[in-house]
Design brief:
9 strands; 265 residues; 9 helices; two-stranded parallel ribbon; 7-stranded parallel sheet; alpha/beta
Length: 265
């Protein structure tokens, strides 16, 4: 193996599992997190780099390192929830900077080198919520859908150069993300009963979700396939639910999604 991969968000979860999987397969792996100096359980074979996706200067500082990578896995991001009516504009801007604009800029910095070498793989780690939107997750859904939109369109431009973009959409994952989810809701919000119901169901689904290692296996498959597909989904019975979405009326799929989370139509 003579490939170099850069993975964002390797301190835990999907990023850490993907880094470990690629090291085991012989890749040179660079992994980012906000403060590498604070990590106490580093993976052998990973070169750790500092990156804060909310800081444009931090992103640009990686330009030289990105120029030499063959594989970019945009995994880092933040979870977000709250009633649409009550989402703070400043937090929306931060969410899109971290979950969309930052990953897109990293890809832009990596593409010239990939294109000149005639090989590249860029994986955007999205969410099945982008395909199956859920109440009180509109901000997160929109950010992940935007990331998928960039990937779906740009792959047509770059695949003639041997550079393939793809999106991996995990469903419910047991990574402890529920403890790190940002919540925005007013103390006297009229949406609170449904919001709390949704969060309870979401946390329950995540506790029984697939492992980060399972998602990492899907990411590795997307990287090493000769012609990666636009979308890979994993977890939450993905093959079945995507098939049902194609076969059933949209209103029925929406009703089933709400029912799974205990929500009213």
């Amino acid at each position: 193996m003579d490939r170099t991969a850069l993975i964002t968000g390797v301190s835990s979860g999907i990023g850490r599992s993907t880094a470990a999987a690629l090291v085991a397969r012989g890749y040179r792996v660079r992994g980012t997190c906000r403060t590498p100096s604070k990590l106490t359980d580093r993976l052998d074979g990973v070169e750790y780099l500092a990156l804060d996706l909310a800081d444009e200067r931090s992103i640009e500082a990686l330009a030289e390192r990105l120029a030499g990578v063959d594989v970019l896995v945009n995994n880092a991001g933040e979870s977000h929830s709250g009633p649409f009516e009550e989402l703070p504009p400043d937090d929306l801007r931060r969410l899109f900077q971290v979950n969309v604009f930052g990953p897109v800029r990293l890809a832009q910095l990596a593409v010239p080198g990939m294109r000149s070498r005639g090989y590249g793989r860029i994986v955007m780690v999205g969410s099945m919520l982008a395909s199956f939107p859920l109440s009180y997750r509109s901000s997160y859904v929109a950010a992940k859908a935007a990331l998928k939109g960039f990937s779906n369109a740009a792959r047509h431009e770059l695949s003639p150069f041997g550079v393939w973009l793809t999106t991996v959409e995990p469903g419910s994952i047991n990574t402890g993300i529920s403890r790190r989810r940002t919540k925005h809701i007013a103390a006297d919000s009229p949406y609170r009963p449904d919001f709390e119901t949704m969060l309870t169901a979401l946390d329950r689904n995540e506790r029984s979700g697939v492992s980060a290692a399972r998602v990492a296996e899907t990411i590795v498959r997307a990287i090493e396939t000769k012609r990666p597909k636009p979308l890979y989904a994993v977890g939450s019975n993905a093959p079945i639910v995507f098939a049902l979405r194609r076969a059933l009326p949209a209103a029925l799929v929406e009703k089933a999604t709400h029912r799974r989370h205990g929500l009213r139509r």
